[in-house]
Write a structure and sequence with these properties.
669 residues, mainly alpha, two-stranded antiparallel sheet, 30 helices, 74% helix, 1% strand, elongated
C-alpha cells in the first residue's frame, strides 16, 4: 500500500538501544582514549601533579583503618624475622670460623670408619616412615649418603692391586647389616630396578668427574647378595657397554661391576662374560682384563661340580671359533681357562654327558681351527672316560661321523699310554670291533665313503694295542717295597732291643723252628758249595789260574767297594737311628695329639698278631701229621735245619777262602 509514492515494505523495528548510547568495543575504547584530550594539554604541570596527589590521598582515606593496622603489624613481624635470620646466620658463620674444619678422609677405609652408624640408621628409619611404599627412595638416600661420606677418587677403576672382594671387604659389619636390612625390606623387584639405576648413575657421575666409590660398594653388595640382578636386563647392559666402551675408565668400571656377580655364582659370571664381555676381547684396552675376569671365575669355582654344558660350549666358541679377532698375547691364558672349565664339567660323575658328546661331534668339522679341534677331542676323551653311554652314542653315529671318528681314533692311538688308564678298555674294545665290522660292510659298497681307509687303519692299530697282554700288578716295585718294609721292621726291632738275638724277630724265629731250619739249610749250602769249589779247583787248575789272574784287580776293587759300602751303610744307619731318637718322641707326641691312643692300639694289635702267628705256627706244626713218610713234620724240620747249617758253613768257608786269596794277591802285588 502506498501513500504519496511511498510504500511500506517491512515492519517497523524498535531501536534496540532504546535511546541509550551504543557500547564501544575494546579497540574503539583504546582509539578513543588515544585521541581524547589530556590534562597536560590544558593545565600547567604543577596543577596536574597536585590533582593526581589529591586523588591518591582520597583513595587511601577510603580504605578502612583496620587494614592499615594489620599491614603495619605484618611489616613489623617480617622485619623481626629478617633480623632473627640475620643474627642466626651471623652466629653460624662465627661458629664455623671458631670450630676446626673436618679433614677429608684419605682412604676408603678411613671414610667408611668415619661414617656415623646412628645417622645412617636414622636416614633409613625416616624414609621408611615417610615413604613406606617407596623402597627406591630409601635405597637412593642411603646411596647418596655413602657417596657424600666417601669422597675418594681412585686412579685404578678395577682395584687391581686389591683382593677380589674389595672394597666390600673393608665395609664395617654394622654398615653392611643396615644395607642388608634395607634391601631385604625393599624386595627383589625394587632391588633389581635400583641396581640398574645405580649402574647408570655411576657412569653419569664418572662423566661429570664425581667420585663413585659409594656406587661401586653398593653395586658389589647387591651382586654378592642378589647375583641374579646382574643378568636381569642383558640388553641394557649391552647398551651401556656400547655407550662408554670408548672411555676406558668408565668401560673398566662397568666390567668390574658386572663381574661381581660371578664372584659368588659361576653360572651368572659365565653368562655375563659370554653375553657382554666376550666381544671386548678384540679391543686392546680391555682384552687383558676380560681374560683376567674369566681366569678368576674358573679359579674361584674350581671345586664346583654344577655347570651347564651349554655354557662350556659357548665359552669355547667365543675363544676358539674365530668369531672374535683375539690378540695372540692372551690366547694361551684363555686356553688355560677353557681347560679348567672342561675339568669342572666332567667332575660330576653322575651327570650324563651323551648329549655333550654328540654336540662336540657336530662341531668337529673340516673348517674347525686346529686349537679348537684339540679342545673338542680332549672333551670327547673325557666324555668317554666319564659316561659309558657315550660309547653307545659313538657306535650309533659312527657312519655319520666318519671324519670325526678318524680324528678321535688317531688321538687315542697317539696318546694311548696317557689316556688308557682313564678309559673303559673292555667297552672301547667292543666299540672298535663294531667299527671293524662296519668298515667291512662299507668297504663292500659301490660308493666308497671318505675317511673310511683312515678309520680302518686306526681301528686296526688301536685293537693291537689293546690286545697286548700286560701284567696288572707291578711286581718289581712291589718286591722292592716289601724288602724295604721288612728291612725297616727288622732294623727297628733290633734297635729297640739292643741286638738281633734279643729282638722279637729272633725270638719268633727260634720258637717257631724257622731259625733251626735256616741254620741247617745254610750248613748244607756251605757244605755243597765247598765241595763244588774243591771239585772246580781239582779239575780245572788252568782255568782257575786264568780266572784268578784276570779277576784279581776286580776282586780288589770289589773289596774296596764293599768296605766303602759298609762304612756308608753304617753311617746312614747311625744317622737314621740318631734321627729316630731325636724326632721319634716329637712324631709320637704329634700322633698322640691328633690321634690319641693310636700308637698304643697299634702296639697291642702287633703283639696280638705276633702271638697269633706263634699260636697258629705251633698248631700247624702239631697238626702236620697229614704228611707221612719222608715228608713228615719231623723230617722236614730236620732237612731244613741241615740245609741251613750246610749253607752257613759253605758261606763261611767261601768268605774265608775269598778273603785269603785277596790278601795273598795283595801281598804279591
Amino acid at each position: 500500500m502506498s501513500y504519496g509514492g511511498w510504500e511500506v515494505v517491512g515492519k517497523n523495528k524498535k531501536d534496540k538501544s532504546n535511546g541509550k548510547p551504543a557500547k564501544l568495543s575494546k579497540a574503539e575504547k583504546k582509539k578513543f582514549m588515544e585521541n581524547a584530550p589530556k590534562l597536560e594539554d590544558f593545565l600547567p604541570l604543577d596543577e596536574v601533579k597536585t590533582l593526581y596527589n589529591t586523588l591518591d590521598n582520597n583513595k587511601e582515606n577510603k580504605k578502612p583503618v583496620k587494614e592499615k593496622e594489620s599491614k603495619t603489624k605484618e611489616n613489623e613481624e617480617k622485619k623481626k624475622q629478617q633480623k632473627q635470620k640475620q643474627q642466626q646466620q651471623q652466629q653460624q658463620a662465627e661458629k664455623k670460623k671458631t670450630e676446626p674444619k673436618e679433614k677429608p678422609p684419605k682412604s676408603i677405609e678411613g671414610a667408611l670408619n668415619a661414617i656415623s652408624i646412628e645417622e645412617l640408621k636414622n636416614i633409613l628409619a625416616t624414609n621408611q616412615a615417610r615413604f613406606p611404599e617407596a623402597p627406591l627412595v630409601w635405597l637412593k638416600d642411603i646411596l647418596a649418603y655413602l657417596c657424600v661420606k666417601i669422597p675418594i677418587d681412585t686412579n685404578d677403576p678395577v682395584f687391581g692391586n686389591k683382593p677380589a672382594d674389595y672394597p666390600l671387604s673393608v665395609v664395617p659389619n654394622t654398615i653392611r647389616s643396615i644395607l642388608e636390612s634395607a634391601t631385604k625390606d625393599a624386595g627383589s623387584k625394587a632391588v633389581q630396578i635400583f641396581y640398574e639405576i645405580t649402574l647408570t648413575a655411576m657412569t653419569n657421575n664418572m662423566v661429570k668427574g664425581t667420585p663413585v666409590v659409594g656406587h661401586k660398594i653398593f653395586l658389589q653388595f647387591l651382586a654378592y647378595q642378589h647375583p641374579e640382578t646382574v643378568i636381569s636386563n642383558i640388553p641394557k647392559l649391552v647398551t651401556l657397554r656400547n655407550s662408554y666402551q670408548n672411555r676406558k675408565p668408565i668401560g673398566l668400571s662397568l666390567l668390574w661391576a658386572l663381574a661381581q656377580g660371578g664372584q659368588k655364582n659361576l653360572t651368572i659370571g659365565l653368562k655375563i662374560w659370554h653375553e657382554v664381555m666376550a666381544s671386548m676381547l678384540e679391543m686392546k684396552n680391555y682384552a687383558s682384563y676380560v681374560v683376567q675376569i674369566l681366569e678368576r671365575f674358573t679359579t674361584l669355582h674350581g671345586t664346583t661340580t654344577s655347570l651347564s654344558s651349554d655354557l662350556y660350549l659357548n665359552i669355547a666358541d667365543d675363544v676358539y671359533s674365530g668369531r672374535y679377532n683375539i690378540p695372540a698375547s692372551v690366547e694361551k691364558e684363555l686356553g688355560v681357562s677353557v681347560a679348567k672349565l672342561r675339568t669342572i664339567i666332567f667332575k660330576n660323575k653322575d651327570t650324563r654327558h651323551q648329549p655333550l658328546f654328540q654336540a662336540l661331534m657336530k662341531k668337529l668339522t673340516y673348517t674347525t681351527p686346529e686349537n679348537y679341534k684339540a679342545e673338542i677331542i680332549n672333551a670327547l676323551v673325557a666324555s668317554l672316560s666319564t659316561d659309558t653311554q657315550c660309547y653307545s652314542a659313538w657306535r650309533s653315529n659312527y657312519t655319520k661321523y666318519l671324519h670325526q671318528s678318524s680324528l678321535l681314533l688317531k688321538h687315542l692311538n697317539a696318546n694311548w699310554t696317557r689316556v688308557s688308564p682313564s678309559l673303559r678298555v673292555n667297552l672301547l674294545r667292543e666299540t672298535i670291533l663294531t667299527f671293524i665290522a662296519t668298515n667291512e660292510e662299507l668297504g663292500k659298497a659301490k660308493k666308497k665313503e671318505e675317511h673310511l681307509n683312515a678309520c680302518v687303519k686306526e681301528c686296526k692299530v688301536l685293537l693291537e694295542k689293546m690286545t697286548v697282554s700286560r701284567s696288572w700288578f707291578p711286581w718289581k716295585k712291589g718286591s722292592v717295597l716289601l724288602l724295604v718294609v721288612i728291612g725297616a721292621m727288622l732294623a727297628y726291632d733290633t734297635q729297640k732291643h739292643g741286638s738281633f738275638k734279643a729282638s722279637n724277630t729272633n725270638r719268633f724265629l727260634t720258637e717257631s723252628g724257622v731259625s733251626g731250619y735256616g741254620e741247617h739249610a745254610w750248613s748244607r749250602v756251605r757244605l755243597y758249595s765247598s765241595k763244588s769249589l774243591e771239585f772246580i779247583e781239582a779239575s780245572a787248575p788252568e782255568y782257575y789260574k786264568a780266572v784268578t789272574e784276570f779277576s784279581t784287580p776286580y776282586v780288589k776293587l770289589a773289596g774296596d767297594l764293599c768296605l766303602i759300602t759298609k762304612n756308608t751303610s753304617l753311617k746312614v744307619y747311625n744317622n737314621i737311628v740318631l734321627y729316630a731318637h731325636q724326632k721319634g718322641p716329637l712324631i709320637a707326641a704329634s700322633i698322640n695329639h691328633y690321634a690319641p691312643g693310636l700308637l698304643e692300639s697299634m702296639q697291642k694289635q702287633s703283639i696280638q698278631a705276633m702271638e697269633a702267628i706263634k699260636t697258629y705256627s705251633a698248631l700247624a706244626s702239631d697238626q702236620a701229621n697229614i704228611l707221612v713218610g719222608h715228608l713228615n713234620s719231623e723230617n722236614l724240620r730236620k732237612y731244613t735245619s741241615q740245609a741251613i747249617n750246610t749253607t752257613q758253613t759253605f758261606a763261611s768257608q767261601t768268605y774265608n777262602w775269598v778273603y785269603e786269596k785277596v790278601q795273598t794277591l795283595t801281598k804279591v802285588h
